[in-house]
Write a structure and sequence with these properties.
Pfam families: CMD (PF02627)
Shape: elongated
CATH architecture of the largest domain: Up-down Bundle
Order of helices and strands: HEHEEEEEEEEEEEEHHHHHHHHHHHH
CATH topology of the largest domain: AhpD-like
Oligomer: single chain
Helix content: 40-55%
Mean pLDDT: 93
Structural class: alpha+beta
Strand order of the largest sheet: 1-3-4-12-7-10
Distance between the termini: 44 Å
Largest sheet: 6 strands, antiparallel
Strand content: 5-15%
Number of domains: 2
Keywords: Signal
Protein name: Carboxymuconolactone decarboxylase-like domain-containing protein
Organism: Parabacteroides distasonis CL09T03C24
GO molecular function: peroxiredoxin activity
Low-confidence stretches: 1-21
CATH superfamily of the largest domain: AhpD-like
Amino acid sequence: MNMRQNFLIRLFCLCLFPVFTMAQNTDNFRQPYPLGTKLPEASAKNFIGQAYIAPITVNRELNVPMSNVTFEPRCRNNWHYHKGGQILVASAGIGYYQEKGKPARRLYPGDIVEIAPDVIHWHGAAPDSWFAHVAVSCNPQTNEAVWLSPVGEKEYQEATSQAENVYAEANRVLEAREQAIVSIAAYTGKGDLAHLRQALVKGLESGMTVNEVNEVLIHAYAYCGFPRSLRAIQTFMQVIEERKSMGIKDVEGREASAIEDGGSRYERGRDILAEISGTSASVPKAGYAVFAPTIERFLKEHLFADLFERDLLTYRERELATVSVLAGVGGVEPMAYGHMSICLHLGITPEQLTALLNIVEINLGKKSSDPLRDVLGQLTDKK
């Protein structure tokens, strides 16, 4: 495909699927509860940055006051404690909670924090993300918040950086390019476009060309579907245009090489799968291959021939991307087992797969990483 054809295809996609992937703000930050209104002045003085509050319970007879609190990036409240304790339920974005004298805890949707009475703490948003949580006031008849000193910029930066980089040294077993591929693929699988933007920039900064990053996003569609793949590509298009407007010219890179093998696509895909998995192509078909032979043919012809034959990514990079996409999708542990087995056969070590899951944990949370840590444990125990 020449550059003119490439440009026309991109233009067509842009026209057919308008791009709505602007940076997060109050209008497009997705959360399950209302944003509410800006904090009243009496409360805002105990916060650095802008926060919003929306009561979500109205029946006072229940004695369980609950409010949705939304923080803009870098917003956090002062050190404080509650005489009656508090429960936080993270509902959207990425945030932090820290008790005095302890490391900060990174929070993801669904995480719960139980704060005992009189425990000094603070909570708020990550530096690069909006964050929302439901705050539950315990023992409301006697509960009272006691506000202390602000969480200064240096203190906040140290706490959040320590939590974000807890695995940095262990993750060095993966090259910077591979780490970028993992983040890009995981966010694409999850459908988290806001954080995908940052991962795409890191991919380019690691030395990946535009076409190589695009290839990760194209590859992802086989595992998370066209809608998420296309939304990720749209996001990447916008990132490229924004960087152009800042005078940054990213290297487009070469196109995938032409396929010269004259064999049938099914046979080529079958042979590639046998090569990367170590399983003979002559093994009798079973399971879904017998029950739904059409999809088995599609897998061989399209996934393992049409996609895996494209040489913009190595087999190793494609499998790292695949496992990362599956982590983002969630609930597909049997498929993750198969692809992590392929990773091991390709020479990717358990330590490198652990690093992959470390990155997934920091980006998406333990709910995305822990099921695949169990899968990796099964595979390594098996050996």
